Amino acid sequence: MSAGLYIHIPFCLSKCDYCDFYSFRADGGTMDAYLAALKKALRFWGSQTAGTFDTVYFGGGTPSVFGAGRLTETLDTVRRSFRLTDDVQITVECNPSSVTKELASALAHAGVNRVSLGLQSAVAAERSALGRRSTVKQAETALSLLRNAGIDDLSLDLMLGIPGQTPQSLRESLRFLESTGVRHVSAYLLKLEAHTPLFARSATLDLPDEDAVCDLYLQAANALEQTGLRQYEISNFAVPGFESRHNLHYWLCEPYLGIGPAAHSFLGGKRFYYPRDLQAFLNGDPPVFDCIGGDKEEFCMLRLRLTQGLCDAAFYARFGEHLPKEMFTAAKELARHGLLTADDDTISLTKNGFLVSNSVIGKLLESL
Questions:
Q1: Which residues pair with 8 in a beta bridge?
Q2: Residue 3: which of 69, 63, 62, 48 has the closest Cα?
Q3: pLDDT tens by residue, 303-357
Q4: Same domain as 243, residue 320
Q5: pLDDT at residue 134 above 90?
Q6: 91 in Cβ contact with 244 (< 8 Å)
Q7: Within 13 Å of residue 96, how many CA atoms lie on the same side as its CB?
Q8: Rounded distance, CA 146 to CA 153, Å?
Q9: Residue 267 counted as domain residue
Q10: What ranges make up the beta strands (E) of the chain?
Q11: Is the pTM above the cut of 0.90?
């Protein structure tokens, strides 16, 4: 089984009002020091890891802020340190405003074959409410520059439940997404994270209520599928064959290695992470053990996030035993409420089930 490699780039030009990811502004000297620490960590883990990797994912932060030269040098170190498959999927997250002709060309030349762009909304007022810097026009330009450079596996983010968002404004964003022809969309609900500016202003925000957010989610999911983007996970839609293979490692409970402050890993049945501490990473401090991972409950929970669902055959292949009959009994009761579909082998949540996935999955896991 191949694994995924995640590389965290914790740098941004500015922090969006809703963002709780580990990121901040940095000067060139700090980025150079981070590059040196990254290369050292990559060489170490390459010497400790014998398997193959079929995905490399640069997340952040805004990895494009790291610069084409540093990203290329990092990828060169990855190739020298790890065994990559011939069809490795290499993704870089970018802010549309940071994509230039030179960056797009350099990424393509370095072997990057997938780019994920932060759009969130095609409506200017909604983007302003989130503190987004780039414009819709910049997103269009970024897509064009990337395609001209030879990178056509492109993804856009869409956020639901934004202050002021309505079915009409969402239709504007959905029309824009369709016009771009991108093959992947991540459509996720806004979550107000503590200690963010948006959270601090939450009492004054014109947020859609819970029922309205549910309607927005169903509107987006149905519209995206009508344009040929098949839903394959609670928040992700793709033309078949253009799924995020890296994120599938997470949801299929497969191994992955994360490098950089705040990056998490699941290797050898163990979960561990680097603390959210840049200086500790620059000092070469090792990651921290979290827990033993991949047990039956976690396996089922992650698989049920996928539209393909949880099947008895996969559970048996992993654990040498069948799913409990009580789970299928509970599933058939939930199916009567339209929250999932179930037969004698597979349990799959519906779109309505995804809206209350925590409760549905919790009910199913009681049988374990």
A1: 59
A2: 48
A3: 999 999 999 999 999 999 999 999 999 999 999 999 999 999 999 999 999 999 9
A4: no
A5: no
A6: yes
A7: 24
A8: 9
A9: no
A10: 3-9, 52-60, 83-94, 114-120, 154-160, 184-189, 230-233, 236-238, 256-259, 264-267, 270-273, 288-292, 310-311, 340-342, 346-349
A11: yes
Domain containing residue 352: 309-365
Task: Please state at what angle helix 68-81 crosses helix 101-110, rounded to 10 degrees.
Answer: 10
Total count of domains within the chain: 2
Question: 216 and 93, same structural domain?
Answer: yes
Look up residue 31 and give its two tokens. 């980025």
If asked whether residues 33 and 115 sit together in one domain, one would say: yes
d(CA 15, CA 272): 26
User: What ranges in 309-350 are assigned the alpha helix state H?
Assistant: 312-319, 325-335
pLDDT tens-digit map of 263-313: 999 999 999 999 999 999 999 999 999 999 999 999 999 999 999 999 999
Percentage of the chain modeled with pLDDT above 90: 87
| CA distances for 1 relative to 53, 54, 242, 292, angstroms | 9, 9, 20, 19
The answer to whether residues 88 and 54 touch, using CB atoms and an 8 Å cutoff, is yes
Question: How many CB atoms within 10 Å of residue 366?
Answer: 10
- Locus of tokens 């991949």: 294
- Residues 6 or more apart whose Cβ sits within 8 Å of residue 236: 184, 185, 186, 187, 243, 244, 247
Q: Give 36-51 as a DSSP string.
A: HHHHHHHHHHHHH--S
- Spatial separation of the C-alpha atoms in residues 277 and 272, rounded to whole Å: 15
